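User: Predict structure, ligand adenosine-5'-triphosphate.
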Amino acid sequence: MEDQTMAVGDSPTLDRSKAVSLDGRRFQFTAPIESAVEPGTFVTLGSDSERIQLGQVENIEFSIGGTLSGGGRILGAISESGTLEARKTMPFALAEMGNAEANMIELLYGNTAAPLVIGSYVSGGDIPARLLPNRFNRHTFWCGQSGSGKTYALGVVLEQILIHSALPMVILDPNADFVRLSEPNSHGGQAGAASVIADRDIQILRPGPNGPDSLRVRFRDMSLQSKAAVLRLHPLTDHAEYNELIHLEQTVGIVSPELIVPTLRARESKAAQTLAARIENLRVTEWQVWAAGAKAVTDVLEERPDATVLDLGGFAYPDESLVVALAVLDDLWEKREQRRPILIVIDEAHNLCSAEQNSPLNVAVRERIIQIAAEGRKFGLWLLLSTQRPSRVHPSIISQCDNLALMKMSSPHDLEELATIFGFVPAAMFARSPGFRQGEALFAGGFVPAPTIVTMGARLTHEGGADVGVPMRQP
Ligand SMILES: Nc1ncnc2c1ncn2[C@@H]1O[C@H](COP(=O)(O)OP(=O)(O)OP(=O)(O)O)[C@@H](O)[C@H]1O
Ligand SMILES: [Mg+2]
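Assistant: Predicted complex:
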């Protein structure tokens, strides 16, 4: 009797990768096991030069000793003139599939100038990966677990925006990570970034003694609601004090913060006394953040420097950094009709966007961010929010984001939630995130022509708050 068993390795293998598409939009393929395809790999489909199409592998299955098989999306057909036509894709039977070369991937960008080189494709040798700068006119959500390289990578992208676009940015920087954005490092020097950065107007504002770079807010300019949030006043529960606050400028006049309490005390009314006590108890007048005649952060932003870094880390009272965020966001919102574009970058965004924090200042900041997320886009107020805790960012903020950058994230719960919100990203590409190394990121949404996994390039400027090393004893 004939032996019908097959030894491992005898199973049928293809020596070529073959693909088929029934609808001209998606394709299925089989490939030899040694093919270098992964979810996200760009492939050419077809060998007849007139009918070559560009596709992206989205999912793969394999069996040891067998073949690879999977499916993907056809991104466009390559025309005679060598452009990629997304609307002219067509079905095909058993076409050859091969890894797309750099010049093919380049076609994805069409005629759009995409000078923002941020690194290289993880699966594509040294092919540069780029972002479309014109699509930062949407909100961007950036996440990855602690240490995945978010802040470093964000720095790479912000440098490119700064060098190649005229889009001004304000960076809310809780860990002083971007305070050296104006100082090229040795790599930046070699890459020619030094002279470009030197030409840019980069303002670094920080807590500290009064000076040209001090980070200050003018209490008087804040809206009534925001002043009430600073003083934790509710319009109904604290109606008498709230009312006193409404009339503060008429009764107390425009006095410097340290004079508010004595002036209120000098008034007869009970509400004035209670308000004075409240201000004293909260130690609001001790806050260094008040401008008291000095230039306020909103004055600086009014001049629209190319980049304004707000170092929020060094205040003595945690509420001071919330006051800065609130004053800046309120001011930008207030002037939205001017339609002056600005990229609002918030690192550690869960600090300001959490659905769980309920102090009046936290609520005021969060509500303003929710409003900007929902309505700011058409006024040129574009958010870029970075966090290691997506589940702690209010869901209505994330759902307004069109661009996604995802770095290593091991939490299945977080990944599931993101996959639901960013449903246009192939599940198998999301599934690669737990295996990412530091500095690897998945970009998807409007700012890339197709979802792309990137090894981030090197920073051109100095990082501010690099990790602190463990001190070791000398032997
Ligand atoms: N692509 C990279 N190349 C070289 N060093 C990197 C890269 N990415 C990150 N690092 C280094 O790794 C450390 C952690 O990176 P980073 O601060 O960007 O992580 P993070 O995701 O922002 O973490 P956290 O959520 O804790 O803020 C930093 O010291 C940074 O210099
Ligand atoms: Mg960080």
